[in-house]
Design brief:
mainly alpha; DUF2164; rod-shaped; about 80 residues; DUF2164 domain-containing protein
């Protein structure tokens, strides 16, 4: 995963805030960046793949609904599929 410099700054600050508030530990910027890189490389693909799966599920449901809607407006003919 690639983040812009602005995104990285925000994420690093969020990691530092989490460590401070939840764990009572001061985490330096370098360590927070290292942790972010680790999660982005090692854990990020799992989140990415899950998002793709979820998006595909939504799209498939929409396509099924569209297919049903098209079937409903189909005109009767002598031709049988």
């Amino acid at each position: 995963m690639k983040f812009s410099a602005e995104e990285k700054d925000i994420l690093v600050k969020k990691i530092q805030l989490y460590f401070d508030q939840e764990l009572g530990q001061d985490l330096g910027s370098f360590d927070a960046q290292f942790l972010l890189d680790f999660f982005a490389e090692q854990i990020g693909p799992y989140f990415y793949n899950r998002a793709l799966f979820d998006a595909n599920t939504v799209l498939q449901e929409k396509m099924d609904a569209m297919s049903d809607a098209l079937y409903e407006i189909e005109k009767p003919t002598e031709f049988i599929r």
